[in-house]
Write a structure and sequence with these properties.
Two copies of one chain form a homodimer. By secondary structure, chain A is an all-alpha fold. Chain A has helices at residues 9-27, 30-37, 41-48, 51-73, 82-98, 107-115, 120-146, 156-176, 180-193. The first copy, chain A, folds into two domains: 1-49, Homeodomain-like (Arc Repressor Mutant, subunit A), CATH 1.10.10; 59-221, Tetracycline Repressor, domain 2. In chain A, 47% of the residues are buried. The interface between A and B is large, with 60 and 61 residues. Chain B binds a DNA duplex through α2 and α3.
Chain lengths: 221, 221
DNA sequence: TACGTTATGGACGATCCATTCCACAACTGA
DNA sequence: TCAGTTGTGGAATGGATCGTCCATAACGTA
């Protein structure tokens, strides 16, 4: 019927994401994206609308990825391993920030900081993402409570909010300049202070389980 | 000797801060600032250099204020009240974010998110600020430990990093859209999970002490 | 009071950037 | 092979924005 597209949409979105991630919304020019993707401006605008729509697309995909990473590690499996999943997730998030040597931070945080105040779409999407993460964490905490790894007297909703705050906070203080090793320690400490059931004991200063290797994989934070 | 300035520098910096705070660095125009302050561009540039220098000035002042707020509440007073000071500070920070109805967030977080990656001045200043806060929190935690309000087996350095992360994290999740009441709960929960000495007991879900009124005062977050 | 110096503020120039436009290319169905 | 449709890329456009310039104003000093 007509000339087919010569580019892969996913690929273009990836490149666009890199740009927005690196330089923020206002800081990236459409020319940058055109150059980074190899597309002409005509194709770019024809396929994605305008700069705002393109960012919303990228931002939305990122939020989806953030939740998917969490879903891949939380709220699925036997109660006996809930604690391991939970601490694995928190450590993973800390590791992501700690190994972000370029200090790009997280596109979710960056986008929200820059645009949430004036852009309802961004504000809404980031709020959705937060509540989704909250739900996953709460579910996992409840599981850990059933298995006796967390004091069942504690309110899982509140602990989930605390953990989410710590995870997002690690990102924030990391961007603000705290050392990578400090960030990893924070994750350990946060897990260590979660209330244990009577009898069991975890040291508040103790190190967490061995952390997994990161191998430079870029994971949505 | 010459014509004196017709404006108050502090006042101008305040207005400039409002602008940067509301719309970020890239998002504010020098014309906006000129209009907001009533100054002409000539005066503005004559007095502050260029946009970058003006922002650095505003950002630096903000960082100073953030530390001063903390200094005004922490690390000064008898050990017996250390815990009260600590929880007062954490609650104050949460309240600031919770009552930030305009969703402006914190200029420190916003500026760091937007510029730290490419602007060494901003990066350095925000890092300094974090370590200053860390020191204040550590001092206060040590005091609380001496008085027996926090388990002395815990590493004050680590607990301080955790609390700082929670405070900054509250700002982040607040900007991302969590409800004000949730933010206040997070502060309570974070304080509740701090390790108590053997024998004493705090409930992980218990509410903190009554929170002070905020009266709409704008405090550096 | 006259002069040198600094402040003022608005017009101006130069640049940057999002978006549009257009001539041309690639493809399909008739 | 031709016509119709959609994709392509780069030039052009129009508006926005940073920073400068300059004629003038306000002050201290001689």
């Amino acid at each position: 019927m007509a000339r087919p597209r010569a580019f892969d949409e996913r690929h273009v979105l990836e490149r666009a994401r890199e740009q927005f991630w690196a330089t923020g919304y206002a800081g990236t020019r459409m020319d940058d994206i055109a150059q980074a993707t190899g597309l002409g401006k005509g194709s770019l605008y024809g396929a994605f609308g305008d700069k705002g729509k393109l960012f919303h697309r990228v931002f939305g995909d990122w939020c989806t990825a953030v939740v998917e990473v969490a879903e891949g590690r939380l709220a699925d499996g036997p109660d006996a391993e809930a604690w391991v999943r939970l601490s694995g997730y928190v450590h993973l998030m800390a590791e992501n920030t700690a190994s972000d040597t370029e200090r790009r931070g997280c596109l979710l945080a960056k986008g929200a900081a820059e645009l949430a105040q004036h852009d309802p779409t961004v504000a809404g999407r980031s709020a959705e993402t937060m509540t989704a993460l909250l739900t996953l964490l709460r579910t996992e905490i409840s599981a850990a409570q059933r298995h006796g790894d967390i004091d069942s007297a504690a309110d899982p909703e509140r602990l989930a909010a605390l953990l989410l705050t710590v995870v997002r906070g690690i990102e924030a203080v990391g961007k603000a300049g705290l050392a990578p090793e400090t960030l990893r320690n924070i994750a350990d400490t946060a897990l260590a202070v979660l209330p244990m059931p009577e009898g069991k004991k975890r040291s508040a200063t103790g190190r967490g389980p061995a952390r997994e290797n990161q191998r430079g994989a870029v994971t949505a934070t």
